[in-house]
Amino acid sequence: MIGKLEEIKNYWSMRAEGYSESIIDEFETSRAEHWKSMILNHVDTDGPLKILDVGTGPGFFPILLGRDGHRITAVDYTEAMLEEAEKNCRRYNVSAELSKMDAHSLDFEDDTFDLILSRNLIWDLENPKKAYAEWLRVLKPDGKMMVFDGNHYLHLYDEDYADAHKTGRGEVEHRYIKNVDSNIIKDIARELPLSKERRPQWDINTLIEMGVKSVKVDTDGKDSYCTQCNGEDVYLPFSFMICATK
Predict the structure, then answer these.
(1) H/E segment holding residue 113
(2) Which run of H or E residues covers position 245?
(3) Are 73 and 96 within 8 A, CB to CB?
(4) pLDDT category of residue 235 using cuts at 50, 70 and 90
(5) How far lies 134's CA from each of 33, 42, 48, 112, 206, in Å?
(6) What is the pLDDT of residues 72-81, one digit of tens each?
(7) Does the pTM of the predicted model rise above 0.90?
(8) Among 3.40.50.2300, 1.10.10.10, 3.40.50.150, 3.30.70.360, what is the CATH number of 4-245?
(9) 170-218: per-residue pLDDT in tens?
(10) 159 with 229: CB under 8 angstroms?
(11) CA–CA gap between residue 191 and residue 92 (Å, rounded)
(12) Pairing of strands 232-237, 224-229
């Protein structure tokens, strides 16, 4: 019987080609620049930064920031994703160090990176608290860790999010999922710890307990569902950005 990590890897292996097409689409439109502006709002980039991208997938962040001269190290546990990342880096003429690595256990020295980035990964991990601790370990003092993530499967356990999901507000459009059965990842998500946690509250509390200097959160308001509680509007975020300073 294969372990959960291998199940997750096998699913994303099937998704690699379609996911790669989705990031190319982001670069061919204006959406990639939106991501860069979000990063630059929180990070001083007067000089080249040493950046780690955890769970790089098809290489979105290496391309986005590598074109500006930053030194990018990108890791992923799925070989098929790394193959797509290598092709995409060649396509956009950027260089990055690409390595297979488990997000829970990184092969880097303490205090190595100026900036750590991650997009749509933490929710997909068996032990997100361990991963956060490991990322902070390799981050330099005063360095920034920026995490872009969401409450993707909270509707399986939370009534308020389930109501939002029924209205279609919580649905994610999978234009590039191709013929991959989405029930595979849904079944995996049922057993992942963050599918039961309201976020980013969980992340804020966890990072503060780990001793970060500050935590900033941006939900943008556009990716939240508004519901009523005791006559008051309550906003339930689906996606968010967390910026923690070590």
Answers:
(1) strand 113-119
(2) strand 239-245
(3) yes
(4) confident
(5) 29, 22, 23, 12, 13
(6) 999 999 999 9
(7) yes
(8) 3.40.50.150
(9) 455 567 788 899 899 999 999 999 999 999 999 999 999 999 999 999 9
(10) no
(11) 37
(12) antiparallel
